[in-house]
Design a protein that fits this description.
The complex is a heterodimer of chains A (about 325) and B (about 325). Chain A is α/β, with parallel strands linked by helices and about 325 residues long. Chain A has 11 helices and 12 strands. Classes of the chains: A alpha/beta (about 325), B alpha/beta (about 325).
Chain lengths: ~325, ~325
């Protein structure tokens, strides 16, 4: 397999608080993404999971190059993207190759655009298509997403949830991207519709040779759709590996609690303790303490003074815990 | 239904029907719904959007918007028929005997009032608190729902708290007057699974402590499976199946229940094993609504399906509304 995307020690920090006086030291910073390295191979689906506030969305914005990295490098198709400022990248050729599908297409599509307008917009802006070529490409994308052509003239409020989701996907695949970033694409849908959208995504991946980064709260959906899964906690990767293995036998105590919290149809609940409380603050965190320390059921004193590195385990798995394995 | 021996249900809903008068015609949103909840028990109402789960809750609470009218049926809270209760009386029952928590707690709380004062308001109105002890009791209520440092958090505004914290405040408000019945409408949608587990644990603990009955409205069959003793499946304003949780999931008799289970990612081993429920909800306007509102989507449809039908007991404690139900494996 060829490597499509590579992140090397990527960090993103946002300054917070009021502007300081020159002698009052550096401002406080939110460590939204901290030292993240990951790869996406051609044709692979990588799941990104974690609680709200763990840095998933910031990481996604760095990958789609809507934000500039503070540190680290991003390589896409052997080209370093992290050195191109986000404003310049908006007009870059690679822009069309990284596309995004948002959570609720009803909210993310301009309500005054018809389905056809919504799908045509990125084609017009990124590829400069006009006239018949544009119409042909819009129809092609709609058909690939199972969107009946007679619905193309409708506005978002005239479409059902499933149809809107298809418009959102058609809009993203129109430019023939190579990497699709999906941010909770089925969160707003009923289960019966969710199934059809998940199957569509799986079909498109095979037909078009796409790679996916799939951000989701729903671990069950990630388990079914993803080859590999990356678990984040407070800006850092705490565990990664093949999806099936990670969910069946989590190495990191955070992943264990996360998996145990998912309701099961058989009604059985695991005896793994609940994760109580909230994550600690991401503002200027102690660089020498495990981010999970204090909330972790395992944690000992060592976790408060020594940040556990991401260690490799059998079966291409990684976990950042002193006690994993 | 669920009256085992002499235990009186907290809530008994009978043949409840609701219609909305819209410009496009009369929408028959609920059609002869019936179920009962026993003290300490959790009953889950499960179904897709548009199935009438929330309308059921709003009708019971007397909170239907002006266009919605209860066209028939009863909802007995103990001896009181909520349908026949005048609005002023109902306002006293709400908050005191029935409480409700909603999806998106931050939107349900008053954004410009500290959460401690919002709890105190309810305690003053329904909880028998006085103006001298309301503040202390509000802090006590925050401690009871597991909020750390409650004295400080009482001064916080909703925007300063996380979604899970806000939902705990909502629960503190809801249970402040020790209601007999809690209606939880998608209480954990939008929360993380870890937070969801904590919030649901809290609701269960409150129910065990006070004998409060709970109606859990959710689209998540797995959440219902884990948290409810009984599940009622709703589809397009009909109740299509009602049974205890284990039976319903292991031996669903209604094709829609079976379809929902097959569409839930939790159980599936692979994406190929997932099945969608084809089709959509029928148009509920006007007179010629099909007798079985699932018939248009159903693979097991017979000619008999055009006959009117109602929820019938196919086994003790297992009611199904279907002319051609799936075989019971038992």
């Amino acid at each position: 397999m060829t490597r499509l995307l590579e992140l090397e020690n990527v960090s993103k920090r946002f300054p917070v608080g009021k502007a300081r006086l020159p002698w009052s030291g550096p401002p406080s910073r939110v460590h939204a993404v901290d030292d993240v390295s990951l790869t996406v191979e051609q044709g692979e689906t990588v799941g990104l999971v974690g609680e709200s506030g763990c840095g998933k969305s910031t990481l996604v914005r760095l990958i789609t190059r809507l934000l500039d990295v503070t540190e680290g490098k991003i390589w896409f198709d052997r080209r370093e993207l992290s050195e191109i400022p986000a404003r310049v990248f908006a007009r870059d050729d690679a822009r069309a190759h990284i596309q995004m599908v948002f959570q609720d297409a009803g909210e993310s599509i301009n309500p005054r655009f018809t389905a056809a307008d919504a799908i045509a917009d990125p084609l017009r802006r990124l590829l400069g298509l006009r006239g018949d070529a544009l119409h042909a490409r819009v129809r092609e994308a709609a058909l690939q997403c199972g969107l009946p052509l007679e619905l193309l003239g409708r506005f978002p409020h005239q479409l059902s949830g499933g149809q809107r989701a298809r418009v959102g996907i058609a809009r993203a695949i129109g430019t023939h991207p190579r990497l699709l970033v999906l941010d909770e694409p089925t969160a707003a849908l009923d289960v019966s519709v969710q199934v059809t959208v998940l199957k569509l995504l799986d079909q498109l991946k095979q037909d078009l040779g796409l790679s996916y980064i799939f951000v989701s709260h729903d671990l069950n959906v990630v388990r079914l759709l993803c080859d590999r899964v990356v678990v984040m906690y407070l800006g850092r990767i705490v565990e990664s590996g093949p999806a099936q293995a990670v969910f069946e036998n989590p190495l990191h105590p955070y992943t264990r609690s996360l998996v145990a919290a998912v309701p099961r149809l058989d009604g059985l609940r695991s005896d793994i303790p609940r994760l109580n409380g909230d994550p600690r603050s991401p503002i200027d965190p102690d660089p020498n303490a495990c981010r999970f320390h204090g909330r972790c059921p395992v944690g000992v004193d060592r976790c408060g003074v020594e940040m556990p590195p991401l260690r490799a385990f059998d079966g291409e798995r990684h976990a950042a815990c002193h006690f994993a394995g | 239904m669920t009256q085992s021996g002499t235990i009186q249900p907290v809530l008994r809903v009978q043949d409840l029907s609701v219609a909305f008068h819209t410009r496009g015609g009369v929408v028959h949103a609920l059609d002869r719904i019936g179920f009962a909840v026993a003290p300490g028990q959790t009953m889950a109402l499960v179904g897709e959007s548009g199935s009438g789960k929330s309308v059921t809750a709003y009708a019971i609470m007397g909170l239907l918007e002006a266009a919605g009218k209860i066209t028939g049926g009863h909802a007995f809270l103990g001896e009181t028929d909520l349908v026949a209760t005048p609005p002023a009386e109902l306002a006293r029952i709400r908050g005191r005997r029935i409480a409700m928590i909603f999806q998106n707690p931050r939107a349900a709380l008053n954004p410009i009032r500290a959460v401690g004062r919002q709890i105190a308001d309810v305690l003053l109105r329904h909880g028998g608190a006085t103006r001298f002890n309301a503040h202390d009791r509000a802090i006590e209520a925050l401690r009871a729902v597991g909020i750390p440092d409650p004295a400080r958090r009482a001064k916080a505004y909703p925007f300063e708290l996380s979604g899970g914290m806000c939902q705990r405040v909502m629960i503190a408000i809801a249970v402040a007057a020790r209601p007999q019945l809690l209606i939880a409408d998608e209480p954990t949608t939008g929360l993380d699974v870890t937070t969801q587990a904590v919030v649901m644990d809290l609701i269960r603990a409150m129910a065990e402590e006070t004998g409060m009955a709970t109606i859990l409205i959710t689209h998540d069959l797995a959440l219902a499976a884990e948290r409810a003793e009984r599940i009622a499946v709703m589809h397009a304003g009909h109740m299509v199946e009602e049974a205890d949780t284990a039976t319903l999931l292991a031996h669903p008799r209604h094709p829609y229940t079976a379809g929902l289970i097959a569409a839930t990612p939790t159980a599936a081993g692979s994406l190929d094993a997932l099945r969608s429920v084809p089709g959509g909800l029928p148009d509920l306007r006007g007179k010629d609504i099909p007798a079985c509102r699932y018939a248009g989507r159903c693979e097991r449809r017979l000619d008999a399906c055009a006959q009117p039908l109602s929820l019938r007991d196919h086994a003790p404690n297992h009611a199904v509304a279907c002319w051609n139900p799936l075989e019971s494996a038992a």
